[in-house]
Design a protein that fits this description.
Shape: globular
Strand order of the largest sheet: 1-2
Radius of gyration: 17 Å
Distance between the termini: 18 Å
Helix content: 40-55%
Order of helices and strands: EHEHHHHH
Length: about 170
């Protein structure tokens, strides 16, 4: 099982899959998405939990076979590819990006940034572009985003502890 490196979301998603599905896969870390995908395309590894933006064109052109998406629902961009949760109950992994600000940033600045970012995320052109790559915009309040980060931290801390992953 290739990944872009130890501790990446792809690595952790693979470890979570191994735990939940009860399978044994040997983790082979690479130095980024490109080398991990190259190893998969070249047959040096059998499977990879690759990000959809990095792998979608290979799936669309038939160079890779999409076995499952890690989100709770099937991806609009690849409706024929099942969600892993359809055959491993409760499995869900999403890679996400967010915007942060330094501690102590005034609340009015945080609120304005949040309003403007969420307005941008609501733009139909941006939504369509994200959907082309299998992405979805999730516009949250600062409080909801903080709660989301705490939940994700706890989820992945459990996987890291259970699999004894160490920083390199």
């Amino acid at each position: 099982m290739s990944s872009p490196g130890v501790g990446t979301i792809s690595h952790l998603a693979g470890e979570l899959f191994k735990m939940m599905a009860g399978v044994n896969l040997v983790h082979v870390p690479f130095g980024g998405n490109g080398p991990a995908l190259t190893a998969l395309l070249g047959g040096q590894v059998d499977v990879s939990v690759a990000s959809l933006p990095s792998s979608i064109e290979y799936i669309r052109t038939g160079k890779l076979r999409g076995l499952g998406v890690t989100t709770a629902m099937r991806a609009e961009a690849l409706p024929e590819v099942p969600s892993v949760g359809e055959f491993v109950t409760g499995y869900e992994v999403t890679a996400w990006y967010g915007v942060g600000a330094p501690k102590g940033t005034p609340v009015d600045v945080i609120d304005k940034l949040n309003r403007e970012i969420n307005a941008g995320l609501a733009d139909p052109k941006l939504k369509a572009r994200l959907a082309d790559f299998g992405g979805t915009a999730l516009a949250l309040s600062p409080a909801d985003f903080g709660k989301f980060i705490a939940e994700e931290t706890e989820k992945w801390a459990k996987v890291i502890r259970a699999t004894n992953i160490k920083a390199e």
